[in-house]
Each structure stands twice: as C-alpha cells, then as structure tokens.
Amino acid sequence: MVSSKGQFEAHEQALPKGLAESALTDNRLTGESQVGGKLSFMPPGSDQSVLAGRSIVIPELFPPVITGEIKTASARFDFKPGESRYLHFPRLDKSAAGPQSTTEKEILANTRSHVGQQVWKGHRYADRLDAGKLADCASVSEILKASGYDYADSANEGNLVGQLMNNGWRLVGVKEARPGDVIYGGKLGTNWKVGTANAAIGIVGEDGKVYRSDSATGKLTLVDSTEAFGAEFGDQVYVLRPPSSRTTRQPVDSFRPQADNGSSEVPRTGNPVDSASPVRWEADRGDRVADRDNPDPQTRPGDHGSDYWREYWKSYWKNYWQEYFRQGSGDRSRERGERIYQAARQMEGKPVWQGYRYANITENGRLGSAASVSEVLRASGFSYAGGPNVATLARTLLSRGWKPVAVNGLRPGDVIYGAKAGDWQNGGGNAQVGIVGEDGLIYANDPATGLFRGRRAADVFQPGLYGNRIWALRVPAQDAYIPADQNYGQNYRQDYRSFQNPIQGLANIANVAMANVGRQLWTFIRGVGANLGCAASVSAVLDRAGYHYARNAAVGGLEGQLLSNGWQKLPVSMARPGDVVIGARTPYYRQGGGGSHIGVVGYNGRVYHNSSRSGQWSQADISYYAGGRFRYGSWVLRPPGQTV
Prior knowledge:
Layout: H1 17-26, H2 48-51, H3 102-113, H4 136-146, H5 157-166, E1 170-172, E2 182-186, E3 199-204, E4 209-213, E5 220-224, H6 225-228, E6 237-241, E7 257-258, E8 280-281, H7 307-326, H8 332-346, H9 369-379, H10 390-399, E9 403-405, E10 415-419, E11 431-436, E12 441-446, E13 451-456, H11 457-460, H12 463-466, E14 470-474, H13 506-515, H14 534-544, H15 555-564, E15 568-571, E16 580-584, E17 596-601, E18 606-610, E19 617-621, E20 633-638
C-alpha cells in the first residue's frame, strides 16, 4: 500500500523468509475473490499432490522480522482517527481543535452544572423514556434549552438533529470537535435515524470526553468518547457546532446553496459549507416552513420535507468517498478490520458466548468459540454474523463477500479458524475460531474458562491437533451477497474449481436459507405483509436457489406449485437440510389467513422461516413443526431428483 506521502507501508503480518515460503506453498491464493463470481481460492489441504506426507507446523503466526524496512506485528496497526477525513472511528482528540466560541462556552458551562443530575426528568416526554434508559437525547435537549436554544425540544435524536440544523448548527468533523459541540451517532446495521436505543447523543467535553446520560442511572455523566460511542458505531459518528449567535435561524428549505454566478449548486468540496465558502445562502422563504418550528417527535427527521438535504447529502457522500479514495487511504477493509479488532479487545476477559442467542448449546462456554466470535462481529456492526458452530459461521461470512486469505498475510481483524481431524463441520469442540490481533495474539474463547481472551497462536491452534488445517477470512470493503448458486456453502474449503458449476439441490436451498437470516424476505412479493410473509419468504429463498417457478404468497399456493413440479411429500421425521417444511392448523390452510406456516429445513436440526413478530427471516429448532402447534399435521417437500 502506498501512503499519501508516497512511502510504502506494509501492515501484513510477516513470517521469516523460509517459513513464509512454506506457508505460501500450502496456503496458496490463485487469484482475487470476486463478489458474485468465482472464489479463486485453494485453501490448505486441497492439493494432496503438494501436501503428501507433509504438515505445516506454525509455532507462531507472525514472529518479528529482524531485518528490512517493512513494519512488523510489533508495531501497532496504523490507524489515525479522522486524518484528512470528516468521519472516522470515534475517538476525540484530547486537545480541542481551536478556540471555543462564546456559545460553545455557555453550553459547556451549563452541561457541567448538570453533572450527576437526572436532567431528562424535566423534559415533556419524560414518561416515555423507559425510566431514563433512553434519556440521552432528552437530557441534551434540556441542557440546550437551559443555554437559550428554545427550539431544541425533542427526545428523538433524529428530530433534535433536524431542529439544530434548521437553526444554523453546522456539521464538522469528529477530529474538529470542541467542548460544547453536540456529538451524535448510530450503531451500524440499524435503523438508528428514527431515534431508538441504537442512537446516542451527548455534549463534547474536555480531554476527549463526552457528557451523556447514563442508561443505568439516568444521570448526566462524563465518559471517554470511546465508551460513549463504542465499536458498534463504526464511523457513524457526527459533530454539530452551534452558530455564533443564538438568534441565527436558517429554515431547512432556505438552505439552497447559491453559487457566485447565481446558479444553484451543491458544494463540491465534500465538506459542509461554512462562512469561508464562496457559496452564499438564501434565506427568503421562511414563511414556507413555519409549521416546522415544532416538529412532531414521533415522525422521522426526513418527514418535514427537504429536497435540499437529500441533494446535499447525496453530493456530500459522493465527494467524501472520492476524496477518501483519492488520498490513497481507501482500503475500507482495513478500517473495518480495525473495528473488529478493537471490539475483540474490549471484550477480552468476558464470557462473550453468554450473549449469543443459542448460548445454551455451548456447554457453559466449553463450545463457545463460534458464539463468541459471532458476538464480537455483531458488536462491530456485522449483524448477519452468527452460527452455532465454526463451519456455519464460515459459510455465513463467505456468503457476505468475506475473502479467504493466506495465513502468512494476516491483519488485525481477520477471522481465523482451524479444524482438528475428523468430522469437525458438525461442531462438538473439533474446531476453533478467533479474531487476529497484534503481536502474535489470537482473540478466542478459552474452552477451559469460557472467557474470551488473547493468546498466542500456537496455544489457540496447537500444531499437533490442527496441523495445516487453518484458514482465514478477511472482511470485504463493503457488504455483499454472493448468490448461493455459487455453492460456497458446501465448498468453503475445497478447490476453487468446484465453484464453476452452479447447481440446484438441497444443499443450495439450505445455504440460501442460512445466509439470509435477519432479512425481510417477504418483500420478494409486492403487497405482502410482514405478519403473513412466510410463503413469500420461502419463495424468495427457492428463487435464489434456482427454483424460479416457486412464487406464491400463500402456503397452499406455494405447496401446489412445488407438487406440480415434481416435489415429493414426506413426513417431518425424514426431513433433510434443504427440504421445505409445512405445518397446518386446520384442513382449510390452503385458503390462507394464517392457518399454516412454511419454512426451510437447515443444518443441525434447525429450520428457517419468517417470524410474524419481527418480520425477519429467522432460525428456530425443527421441533417447532413437530409438536402440537399444528393440529392438522406437518410434513416436508423435497425437490425432484433427490433420493428419499
């Protein structure tokens, strides 16, 4: 990688020359993986002509390099928050970016005077804040009103931000934050802009700290910025600066940028416009937005109508990313990997597996390897990450565009996993997975204690047990979905040539079902509601797996399509991964209306179906269809050409 200064920077963990050559021989990469295309990767163990009678012993994955100018693992990961960019991993500088304005000083003074108090109790919506657990926005509103900003009156982060920007508050970079500014953000992978527990807001303090409402006590507290906005926020953290005068008000619709030549033009610098910009602002249409002075707190911030802001942010992000990549620092994968690594460090020493939804199958943490890494990835913003065992987790990551990498080129944040001899794909303690750290450490669940901690690579993957059966995956620059007809699920450790022939069948259906957990698949058929979306969701899975004739919003209708195309009807006791399972409460289930349910059988006794409660494609135990819930009966349908 070439830095913006023109110097070569190598951040990959390096092996000594002899061992590196050996690792390259047995962990070969035959080309770059392409989203939606062939996975050109030959993991260790796939070329028996090379490995006959040999076994790699890796005493340490990345020992220090004694000579040369390449940076080694002993040097910390090169990560500089906010450098040449507006938004980045949320760490505030301890020294303020320039002198404070009078308005910032007033806000900071009022904030200090409220420390230790339950400020939110004075807000008009105090009874809706879950006893202070969701009170950060209301607390900031009360502080701003006490500072003279009467228009700051919302318990919803999105609406409060809209109120501030309507009245001249200016977006600045996190690196430019000064005490008295407002800082807010949202967790990755969530709809945080509507104002929920997935959003956070506070007042910037001194020494890189933030004043915020503590969710446990409801009291205004001063904490470090990394505690207020942890790894789950990623780079979705923003700072607003108050105008120089509290009387300044610029309604949303009057923020039409006007260039010197009189033509409308969105700023082209990629930065929010300020007083030094050659762009001036019009403010002659305030009468059109009188009804926006007191926005409804239950509405979304975009509901007050502003074509300008849509245009502004579209242009802003377009220019942001152009500048981002132009500076030679556009390896987004590195930043995402750093986010994962930081999340792993924050969870060190904790029984992370306990937060997993199926913690009960981990035998009190002894089998908590995949569960722990899943929780770390989810905390880093990758909500799709999950799996009851290592193989399932690896399949899920591959389905989202994660790339296999050789073990001699690891970076912090890579996911590394290994297998003991035998049938390790079904779990049972025969595989291990962890997060690559620095200085030769792997962060993984310790089966002896059930705690997540950093250990030497040789202690996590003992050479005598794992040999050369070690693989690694790297987070992509952006999330993707690789169609399941690439058959990544069954071949995630096989010769890349097996990916060239798309196939239909049970494995494909099961893999598609597993890879789409958490998605609203019922939207596949227009007009279908989330609470009655089971058949539409299964239709989406079957269509993705290559059965394009399967498209019906009713369980009975979809069943008829499958039977007419040669699918076999079998008892649930004969279910296999990839079968379609149906449960009916009455003999009239074909008439629809919620009298039945349909899903897809997965691996290890799992079943996937639409959740009427959450409206998402969810995982459950197959016993869901085997009990007395469906009085009329349950059965499975198997695709044509499959043996019974």
